[in-house]
Design goal:
InterPro entries: Cyclophilin-like_dom_sf, Cyclophilin-type_PPIase_dom, CYP38_PsbQ-like, E_coli_cyclophilin_A-like, PsbQ-like_dom_sf
Radius of gyration: 23 Å
Strand order of the largest sheet: 5-6-10-9-11-4-1-12
EC number: 5.2.1.8
Enzyme class: isomerase
CATH superfamily of the largest domain: Cyclophilin-like
Keywords: Isomerase, Rotamase, Signal, Thylakoid
CATH architecture of the largest domain: Beta Barrel
Order of helices and strands: HHHHHHHHHHEHEEEHEEEEEEEE
Domain PPIase cyclophilin-type: 268-463
Structural class: alpha+beta
CATH class of the largest domain: Mainly Beta
Length: 463
């Protein structure tokens, strides 16, 4: 079974244990300096310690099992810098998907990103119950709609999309004022009236944000596709024949409790005390920035590869599956032909500044771009990532994981995953179920809901 690096687990557990600061202070006393670590970095890094910790395993046991491990491998270098400004981490999957759209250099990009930010500010302040700020945000969003309407409609690449964008902008404008109206009947703190008003405002904001998504997708150039240098993937077994996803797809995973959970008296998923027979997850898979990884995933879903497969890792950090014969079997990935080679998927990483040219076969750190933000960062609960062997970037196949992101434990840009593992989508419905998934739970079915050719016949922009 392919897993995330044990050395990363060791690093984080060691930092969490507090031993790191002792080593640092001891080194300072002995040498008066320590060139590759600083106490401030250690304190920040220690905050991320639990992110890759394996439940029930202490740092001392892991250190003994890997005596060759060295902290110098994770020096405080520029590539470990945060990928977002300030301390606030954007962990909203829908927002990250909007930011992942390939709009760089497209007419109207600057304006639509400002419009997006203004609508998302409403969400942030609503969650914090900063009502005065919400009302200001609504007015700011309305000004943005009026200021950018002409630019955005004229930026549409086709006449059909121009008409659609104009309609969406008018619908967006109509959703904003009811947010302020709903909050005018707020009532006292903690009252049912307050809850009802906040729910109404939240629903309106979600609709407004979805309309922004629909506007942005219509600005993506028709027939857009990432540029794949075929020479970079030619040496990876089976990679050239993997069908590719151009655009995005929506898929559904249905999970049920496995035999062990049922035997232990937990036959249902428990979400805040409410019980469910099945966990229904919907995922947006992104072929704009990871066409090979996403295409491989959809191809396996079409082949029913994941149907009936048990969850093989659920440790509070990730939920992982995809090993065809389990961790004790000889196979580690999808085998197209009996007795043939395992299909390999090259490491595929897209930088936010150049989405059309994914990087293949190497980590961003190895080519000196570790500080560059990626298109789909590992900073949302339920982000999809490909598992691979530690020292072979092109060893992914069928195993993937849902990252159980925690912004307190895994700050953006300090999670040691961006640029090292391929991220290819987000869980947009049902992510809350992932916290109650345990090893042995079973994928009842995995299906494609909507996808463009060759995985479906869906041609519209709204996945």
């Amino acid at each position: 079974m392919v897993v995330l690096s044990n050395k990363l687990v060791i690093l984080f557990l060691w930092l969490q244990s507090g031993e790191a600061l002792n080593v640092f202070e001891s080194s300072v006393r002995e040498k008066n300096s320590l060139s590759f670590l600083g106490k401030a970095w250690l304190r920040k890094a220690a905050a991320t310690a639990g992110a890759i910790a394996v439940a029930g395993v202490g740092p001392s046991e892991l250190m003994k099992s890997s005596p060759e491990w060295s902290i110098s491998a994770f020096a405080a270098r520029p590539q470990n810098a945060a990928s977002s400004a300030g301390s606030r981490v954007n962990k909203d999957a829908d927002s990250l998907l909007r930011l992942g759209l390939p709009l760089e250099g497209v007419k109207g990009e600057k304006e639509v990103r400002k419009l997006q930010a203004s609508v998302e500010a409403i969400r942030d302040d609503l969650r914090a119950k900063r009502i005065a700020a919400v009302l200001n945000d609504v007015e700011g969003a309305k000004r943005a709609v009026n200021a950018y309407k002409t630019v955005l409609t004229s930026a549409a690449p086709t006449s059909e999309r121009r008409s659609e964008i104009e309609t969406k902008i008018n619908e967006l404008d109509a959703e904003l004022q009811p947010i302020s109206i709903a909050l005018s009947t707020l009532g006292s703190a903690g009252s049912p009236q307050e809850r009802e008003a906040l729910d109404e405002a939240g629903a309106r904001q979600e609709k407004a944000a979805e309309l922004v998504t629909q506007i942005e997708t219509r600005l993506v150039p028709p027939n857009y596709a990432a540029i794949i240098p075929e020479n970079d993937i030619a040496s990876v077994p089976g990679a050239s024949s993997i069908p590719r996803l151009n655009g995005r797809a929506r898929v559904q995973f249905i999970l049920k409790k496995g035999p062990q959970a049922i035997e232990e008296g937990r036959p249902k998923f428990d979400i805040d005390g409410k019980l469910y027979d099945r966990a229904r997850l919907e995922l947006i898979v992104d072929g704009y920035t990871a066409p090979i990884t996403s295409g491989n995933f959809l191809d396996l879903i079409q082949k029913k590869f994941y149907d009936g497969m048990p969850i093989q890792r659920a440790d509070g950090f990730v939920v992982q599956l995809g090993d065809p014969d389990g961790p004790d079997g000889p196979l580690v990935g999808y085998q197209p032909n009996k007795d043939g080679p395992i299909r390999r998927v090259p490491l595929e990483v897209s930088l936010a500044s150049d989405k059309q040219h994914p990087i293949y076969g190497t980590t961003t750190e190895d080519i000196g771009k570790g500080a560059n933000p990626v298109s789909l960062p590992f900073q949302a609960y339920g982000v999809l990532g490909m598992a691979r062997e530690e020292y072979d970037p092109d060893s992914a196949s069928s195993q993937f994981f849902f990252l159980l992101f925690d912004s307190d434990l895994t700050p953006a840009g300090k999670n040691f995953l961006d640029g090292r593992y391929a991220s290819f989508g987000y869980t947009v419905v049902g992510a809350e179920f992932l916290g109650d998934v345990v090893e042995g739970d079973v994928v009842e079915s995995a299906t494609i809901i909507r996808a463009p050719p060759p995985f479906g016949n869906y041609q519209a922009q709204d996945i």
